[in-house]
Amino acid sequence: MSTEMKRRIFLKRSLAAGTVGVAAAAGMLAPQQILAAWNKEAFESKELSGALNALLGSSDTAESADITVKAPDIAENGAVVPVTVETAMEGVESIAIIASNNPVPLVANFVMGTGATGFVSTRIKMGKTGDVVGVVKAGGKLHTAKKEVKVTIGGCGG
Amino acid sequence: MAKSIKIRAKEKGGVTTVKALMTHPMETGGRTDKKTGKKIPAHFIQEVVCKHKGNTVMMAEWSGGVSKNPYISFKFSGGAKGDELELTWTDNTGGSDSMTSAIK
Q: In CATH, which of 2.60.40.2470, 2.40.420.20, 2.60.120.200, 3.10.20.310 is domain A58-153?
């Protein structure tokens, strides 16, 4: 076999391998989006915009009056701050809860499945006084609402 | 690790409200042990999945910023009395627990 032929075969094979590689990568991505394997980058991001970009693919948010963030005005104990995010919007895909002054601002992200309505309630830790932000993803857009919570004793250090 | 989860699910007017409590230390990894001066390693729930008839109705991803012994509540439509709900959590050390409960 001439070197020319060999090169052609080599090219063909590498091309084929390339296609398989792309397909595998696409296959890897699809289940990740469904299962949304824990998003390390988003949950380790120290900045809000970075966290939103990594989690939801955008940090472009608009404040919305349709979202209610329920949290106490003053939290005596920052280790347990009850937070409820509620919205009547249609097609809610996910709700993220952010404590803007925490060492890691992104606290939780709830991905809504079949039939789930725009309501989540949980308890979070807050390091110091700051805004609790609810980010609702609905119809491909990000909507936010916030509520300031004054923290008497921080719940992140100690 | 058994029975680290408590679930209450109630159906009313077609909407099921699920409330769940989990027992977990939820260490952020940022705290230091006052006695030894060493950092307490991170140990927190990363993922919570709630399934109704095999469909995921809610999936949550958490950081260490969720309080110790976490509580969650959410609502979904389509559940009926007697249906089974399955809730599973997985933490960053690979630990996990699962619990099934019927909607009331």
A: 2.60.40.2470
* CB nearest to A124's CB, from B52, B56, B66: B66
Which two structure tokens, joined as six digits, stand for A30? 């699809």
Contact assessment for residue A123 and residue B71, using Cβ atoms and an 8 Å cutoff: yes
Tens of pLDDT, residue by residue over A44-61, are 777 777 777 777 777 777
Q: Which two tokens stand for residue A115?
A: 């039939």
The CA-CA-CA angle for residues B73, A120, B68, to 5°, reads: 60
Quick check: B76 and A113 CB within 8 A? yes
Which positions in chain B touch A125 (Cβ < 8 Å)?
26, 28, 64-67
ipTM above 0.90, yes or no: no
